[in-house]
Request: fold
Amino acid sequence: MDLSIVIPLLNEEESLPELSAWIEKVMQANHYTYEILYIDDGSTDRSWKVIEQLRADNPNIKGIKFRRNYGKSAALNEGFRAAQGDVVITMDADMQDSPDEIPGLRKMLLEEDYDMVSGWKKKRYDNTFTKNIPSKLFNLVARKMSKIKLHDFNCGLKAYNNKLVKSIEVYGEMHRYVPVLAKWAGFRKIGEKVVEHRPRKYGVTKFGWSRFVNGFLDLMTIFFVGKFGKRPMHFFGLWGSIVFFGGLCIWAYLGVAKFAFQKYNMTERPLFYVGIISLVIGTQLFLAGFIGELISRNAVERNSYLIESKTGL
Ligand code: UDP
Ligand code: MG
Reply:
């Protein structure tokens, strides 16, 4: 199979028939063998009914339904598990992404031998203040921290090599960082292609302001876990030692001041409290490091390096 098109959706009943027809048109024009995987992320409207009807007319359309809303990441993850095509395309269901871009993305992925190609909504049709400006900032930080040269990490339209999607797990709200997850899994050839973006035709956006707060928190998590996930003591132990040692120095100084220079009002000095707090926090950081090591020692994937076996073992 040439293509799997994975489409997560939440309450998009009006868009689905139009989107399906448009994708079918593009697939037929290019003679692709394909499947469209609709992942219904707990819709409360008629979306699932519409998917059943569409499937009756076109057996290339497949549906997966969640019992409740688990989020776009979970939906993508299920789509990735099920995808059979050599190239996997993800796109949003709201018709903000154009199916006309699919052949171009596929061509770039295959001909230039990329592991993944991410869309770039260079001209966006969203609200300037609530979306476009925060998104620029967000992408700048993500780019600096991950050292992946992408302008639009969170673009819904992306193309992947099948091997890549089977090697990563998208959980929580990590759909914003799939390129980072891919890089961790050892897929380093990540390309970018400018794609057409369109205004939302039906329905409403499913992510509010919380997207930026959560997005930045997840960004921190992702870099912490990426760097220290398998060696937490190297982070907590280092900072624990520095803070604890700072506390010790303060106490040594106060001790000398008290006994050598007979200054007795130690507890009235702010430094005294800084010293105590440093010792306590330093110890706590150290203990957090030990607990982190105990947890990561038990993780199932503690030794999985995702090696490709050439010997058949
Ligand atoms: N979506 C989903 N589960 C959710 C939220 C959104 O599957 O919990 C889908 C949604 O139906 C759409 C895509 O994710 O197909 C992108 O969502 P949306 O268009 O609301 O995001 P925006 O374009 O505003 O960033
Ligand atoms: Mg949208």
Notes: The pocket of uridine-5'-diphosphate (ligand 1) is lined by residues 8-10, 12, 41, 69, 71-72, 75, 92-94, 96, 156, 205-207 (CB under 6 Å). The domain at 3-228 is CATH 3.90.550.10 (Spore Coat Polysaccharide Biosynthesis Protein SpsA; Chain A).
